[in-house]
Amino acid sequence: MQPVPIAFCITELDPGGAERALVQIVTRLNRDEWAPTVICLSGRGEMVGPLEAAGIPVVCLGARRKINIGIVTKLIRELRSCRPQVLQTFLFHANILGRIAGHFAGVPHIVSGIRVAERRSRWPMRIDRLTQRWVEMNVCVSRSVLDFTHEQAGVPSSKLTVIPNGVDVDRFRLARAAEVSSFGISPGIKPLICIGRLDEQKGHRYLFEALAKLAPADPTLHLLVVGHGPLDATLKEHASRLGLASVVHFVGWSDQIPEFLKASSLLVLPSLWEGMPNVVLEAMASGLPVIASDVEGVRELISPDQTGIIVPPRDSDALAREIQRLRADSQLAETVGDTSQVFVTEHFTWDAVVQGYVQLYRRLLGSPPPSPPDNCSR
């Protein structure tokens, strides 16, 4: 039996949560059952390398703008060329353009990935709703995102399912700590860390305001801010205005996330909305305690005071209080970190995630799972 041709379409292949997830899913597919092709709407990004190293064809269409109707023609042509039985799309722009192109290319089964509860604007939900006629199923990364998509975007629950993110536990568990002395952090001091795009969604300013309440009484307090984005200059100015120039250290984008997590004492995620935050899974895999705001996907990962700490979003007082509590109680911090590491190891492996996608694709294709080997059937 020939492997089933399947295409994965994504907006870009620069390093990011959705992009890394796509690489994990595609490279772990059984090639005896599936013949994957990856189509990227934009130019070649860093994540093309691991895909091609795994022998997976990658086509980059070179779009310079995310809203580019002209790219639909190229996408239709590619889909007609590889003739997939299933098209799986990731990220908003690939979801929309992929649905249109997949429909006109005659792809039998189109699946979209919904990775965030988008609260910034309602127009993406309207476009999503208008193009749902061409989607057979939407994969949400958390139950919270599924509920939001059903209640706020009006997508029928029959077209929604949940497959969570995963994490490569060993990559984070076994990492060696990065050297942080270059940021002016004295030996023996482990900083807090916040990882994410420098964007309104991530709520950095509330974390800075929390630190401004704590720093005057705690000269060992430091924060690494890992990531880049449109608010880079604004957030640096905000930190300076709060008197945190020597406390908050902007790392920029880095491919050493496991190493920076190992060098830190605590991850803080002050987001205003999410889907299922990869960075929380990564910190848990590192054995690092987490304080996160109560947004989508967080309660599916964190049981308060067991696998992490949850605070209300936009609440700098609560952030300050919980940071101070965990820094003062090393036993609690260690217990939370150890418990969370066990939790993600048991429930959020990439192999389990891939199995969820494979079962969905088999169901849509109407095909039974492969028969087990003789030695397994006895």
What does this structure look like?
- Strand 2, helix 2 (48-53) and strand 3 (58-60) form a beta-alpha-beta unit.
- This protein folds into 2 domains: 4-166 and 349-370, 3-Layer(aba) Sandwich (Rossmann fold), CATH 3.40.50; 169-347, Rossmann fold (3-Layer(aba) Sandwich).
- It has helices at 17-27, 48-53, 70-82, 92-105, 123-130, 143-151, 169-173, 204-214, 232-241, 257-262, 278-286, 316-328, 330-347, 350-365, 374-377; strands at 4-10, 34-40, 58-60, 86-90, 109-114, 137-140, 160-162, 192-195, 223-226, 248-252, 266-269, 290-293, 309-311.
- It is built from 15 helices and 13 strands.
- A 7-stranded parallel beta sheet has the order 3-2-1-4-5-6-7, with helices on both faces. It has a 6-stranded parallel beta sheet with strand order 10-9-8-11-12-13, sandwiched between helices.
- Residues 369-378 have low confidence and may be disordered.
- By secondary structure, it is an alpha/beta fold.
Q: What gap, in angstroms, lies between the N and C termini?
A: 24 Å
Q: Output the CATH class name of the largest domain.
A: Alpha Beta
Based on the coordinates given, report the CATH architecture of the largest domain: 3-Layer(aba) Sandwich
- Report mean pLDDT, rounded to a whole number: 92
Helix content: 40-55%
Per DSSP E runs of 2 or more residues, the count of β-strands stands at: 13
General form? elongated
CATH fold-level topology of the largest domain: Rossmann fold
Numbering strands along the chain, what is their spatial order in the largest sheet?
Answer: 3-2-1-4-5-6-7
Number of helices: 15
Low-confidence stretches: 369-378
The biggest beta sheet reads: 7 strands, parallel
From the alpha carbons, calculate the radius of gyration and give it in angstroms. Answer: 22 Å
Quick one: CATH superfamily of the largest domain?
Glycogen Phosphorylase B
Q: Quote the beta fraction.
A: 15-25%
Order of helices and strands: EHEHEHEHEHEHEHEHEHEHEHEEHHHH
SSE class: alpha/beta
Structural domains: how many: 2
